[in-house]
Write a structure and sequence with these properties.
It is a single chain. With about 450 residues, the protein is of the alpha+beta class. It is about 60% helix and about 5% strand. The protein has 19 helices and 5 strands. Strands 3-2-1-4-5 form a 5-stranded mixed sheet. Strand 4, helix 8 and strand 5 form a beta-alpha-beta unit. The protein is globular and about 75 Å long. The C terminus is likely disordered.
């Protein structure tokens, strides 16, 4: 017998037994919640008392029928509480009688470096997953269509598995982390979805036995007032400020104006940042070479003349003006020539120091070239390289920290939340650090 017919039969039989109390209880079932369950138990008890009184008045002649009705009433009450909670009796339910989940259409951003945007509809089903940066495109390579139509929770699980498979999360890393931020289509921050996604990532770190945290990022009071002026949240405003600071440092023209702040999407901001990636690499190379020259100057201060240092400083300043890899290499040539002349005229420890500086400058320039190639590498090629590199790490588990993984998460979550912007810079700067660290 179908559920709807069973409910109808129970409803009719109970109405015949307790016609006055039935409608009140049934109507309440349409708006039942877990918190009101006790109230309905009380109502059920009232029905039972009423039935018992009727039985006594009838001298016990209706005992069997009454007990049957009471049993049906109890069954119906249980069905009503369970069913109403599940949405069976809601007037706005779907054709199968089950109410659709209440949520707003929107998207959530995952910043792991990879950075991703996951769009979903009112039912929580994913409509699109977009890689916001090069690593984001690598992470979802070949799966773009596979995400579509799946519940967002299932997509989160698939993305986590991909992060492990491609080495973005690993047992060797104690700084595994993901920053989650959900926004409704109307532009309002979605706190419920943010917490749902954050919680699932936190659970997955524990299930997979990895030291990792999922964070939402705390509102920065220093940015909130300014962000409110433009009708954006402080995290979006911080991302805009990151872009503008880079534009100013590189001396290029900004593509984002103040009147764009509220309308521009997170995806568009990431695209604007991606366009500056080549400039960012060149700028970091310039900074690291300048740092090496300063180290050398400090070490040789007593031995070399002031005019030599002035010439080195002038060449270093020229490096800052480079707007491409080719131009940077061209400017670096006279710098290397000068260092070579200095080496020829130096002796002992001074000679060794100058030679080492030359080697490190060349290593930095070579690293820049490798970064340039990675920056423009096809997504498929980058995906296959990562997959091959991390194929032996899929099943590794981190050594369980003292107190367990959940305790580790809670201890570190606050720290990560308070420093989420710095953490992001650390992710992005990992390769830069490897390139800049002098080999002694």
């Amino acid at each position: 017998m179908r559920k709807s017919r069973i409910e109808k039969q129970l409803k009719n039989e109970l109405r015949q037994a307790t016609p006055t109390a039935f409608d009140e209880i049934w109507n309440k079932c349409e708006e039942v919640s877990a918190e009101k369950e006790k109230e309905y138990v009380v109502e059920l008890e009232k029905v039972a008392v009423g039935v018992e009184n009727e039985t006594r008045k009838a001298g016990g002649k209706r005992t069997f029928a009454t007990l049957t009705a009471l049993f049906l009433a109890m069954v119906l009450a249980i069905v009503a509480v369970w069913g109403a909670t599940a949405g069976w009796f809601k007037k706005d339910g779907g054709g199968n009688g089950i109410d659709k989940p209440t949520m707003s259409k929107g998207y959530f951003i995952l910043d792991i470096n990879p950075s991703l945007e996951v769009d979903y509809d009112e039912n929580g089903n994913v409509s699109e997953v977009v890689g916001l940066n090069a690593d984001g495109k690598v992470l979802i390579y070949g799966m773009e269509e596979a995400f579509v139509g799946k519940p967002y929770t299932q997509v989160v699980d698939l993305l986590f598995e991909r992060c492990v498979r491609l080495g973005y999360f690993s047992a060797e890393n104690t700084t595994n982390a993901v920053l989650v931020s959900a926004t409704k289509d109307v532009g309002e921050k979605d706190e419920v979805m943010t917490e749902n996604v954050r919680k699932r990532f936190a659970e997955l770190f524990v299930e997979k036995k990895l030291c990792g945290v999922a964070i939402t990022g705390k509102e920065d009071p220093s940015l909130k007032a300014e962000a409110d002026k433009y009708g954006v949240d402080s995290q979006k405003y911080a991302l805009i400020q990151e872009y503008l600071a880079l534009v100013e440092k590189l001396g290029v023209e900004s593509e984002i104006d103040q009147e764009d702040y509220a309308e521009i999407s997170i995806r568009e901001i990431y695209e604007a940042l991606e366009e500056l990636e080549e400039f960012k690499i060149g700028d970091s190379v310039s900074d690291s070479i300048e740092g090496l020259l300063e180290e050398m100057e400090d070490a040789l201060e007593q031995e070399l003349g002031e005019d030599v240092f002035e010439e080195l400083e002038e060449l270093a300043e020229e490096l800052e003006k480079a707007k491409s890899f080719e131009e940077l290499n061209t400017i670096a040539e006279p710098l290397l020539d000068l260092l070579q002349r200095l080496e020829l005229g130096a002796y002992g420890a001074d000679k060794e120091m100058i030679r080492m500086t030359q080697d490190e400058v060349r290593a930095i320039l070579n690293g820049m070239q490798a970064d340039k190639e990675n920056l423009h590498k096809p997504t498929e090629e980058a995906f296959k390289e990562r997959e091959e590199k991390h194929k032996d790490n899929y099943d590794k588990e981190a050594e369980e920290p003292e107190g367990g993984f959940e305790a580790w998460q809670e201890e570190n979550r606050e720290h990560f939340e308070e420093n989420w912007n710095d953490k992001k810079e650390n992710w992005q700067g990992h390769q830069k650090h490897q390139r800049e660290t002098p080999v002694r």
